[in-house]
Amino acid sequence: NAGVTQTPKFQVLKTGQSMTLQCAQDMNHNSMYWYRQDPGMGLRLIYYSASEGTTDKGEVPNGYNVSRLNKREFSLRLESAAPSQTSVYFCASSERGGGERFFGPGTRLTVL
Amino acid sequence: GQQLNQSPQSMFIQEGEDVSMNCTSSSIFNTWLWYKQDPGEGPVLLIALYKAGELTSNGRLTAQFGITRKDSFLNISASIPSDVGIYFCAGQHHTGNQFYFGTGTSLTVIP
């Protein structure tokens, strides 16, 4: 039982490049989330998926897209990376929309 | 977005000392969570609180849901080196499903 897994662990991009961050959970949770963590800012919600087949914007969605591929997987895509997107990205899941979040280990992204 | 004020921002303590930190909000929450984040890892849930006044323990950790529902407290007793990390609070309004996170308290334990 791995919980929430994320790939890759580290990534360096040049401005304008695109990439997809992958996330999977094996806890049979209904809801999944993408957060970014920046120094002094706490965790901020980018997008979430309350259940399979639905996605909604969070607090900071600009520059990102998401796909809830199935109940287990929720991916985050940067179409044209910008230096402001340099951050640590965490995927999380919860049994239901209002439930406790369980986090993955994070992806450390640097955009040059 | 909702701001949670977490204090202190950082703490340097001797091994064996007790630790207290708190989180305050400008609005009422119906759930408080406390997480710990080790360097290079994701946050791990320590304690969840669901009721005003609730006091819950997890080993040497004790957390309380403030009576006003606008604050929460975390205490660590007899600190040890593995307590080092960043502690985050998170709160949820009764009207929605989203959690809002504090900016963290960085704890350093000096052996």
Q: Calculate the mean pLDDT score of chain A and round it.
A: 94
Distance between the termini of chain B: 39 Å
User: What is the number of helices of chain B?
Assistant: 0
Strand content of chain B: over 45%
- Helix fraction bin of chain A: under 10%
Description:
The complex is a heterodimer of chains A (112) and B (111). Chain A is mainly beta. Helices cover 0% and strands 51% of the residues of chain A. In chain A, strands 2, 4, 5, 6, 9, 10 and 11 form a seven-stranded mixed β-sheet that branches. Chain A is globular. In chain B, the strands form two sheets. In chain B, strands 2, 4, 5, 9, 10 and 11 form a six-stranded mixed β-sheet that branches. In chain B, strands 1-3-8-7-6 form a five-stranded antiparallel β-sheet, with no helix packed on it. Chain A binds chain B through residues 4, 31, 40-45, 48, 50, 58-59, 90, 92, 97-98, 100-106, and chain B through 1, 4, 31, 33, 35, 40-45, 48, 88, 90, 92, 97-104.
Task: Identify the notable features of this structure and list them briefly.
heterodimer, A: 112 residues, mainly beta, seven-stranded mixed β-sheet, 11 strands, B: 111 residues, six-stranded mixed β-sheet
In short:
The complex is a heterodimer of chains A (112) and B (111). Chain A has strands spanning 4-7, 10-13, 19-25, 31-38, 42-49, 56-57, 65-68, 74-78, 87-94, 102-103, 107-111.
Secondary structure: elements and pairs:
The complex is a heterodimer of chains A (112) and B (111).
Chain A: E1 4-7, E2 10-13, E3 19-25, E4 31-38, E5 42-49, E6 56-57, E7 65-68, E8 74-78, E9 87-94, E10 102-103, E11 107-111
Parallel strand pairs in A: 2-11
Antiparallel strand pairs in A: 1-3, 3-8, 4-5, 4-9, 5-6, 7-8, 9-10, 9-11
Chain B: E1 4-7, E2 10-14, E3 19-25, E4 31-37, E5 44-49, E6 55-58, E7 61-65, E8 71-76, E9 85-92, E10 99-101, E11 105-110
Parallel strand pairs in B: 2-11
Antiparallel strand pairs in B: 1-3, 3-8, 4-5, 4-9, 6-7, 7-8, 9-10, 9-11
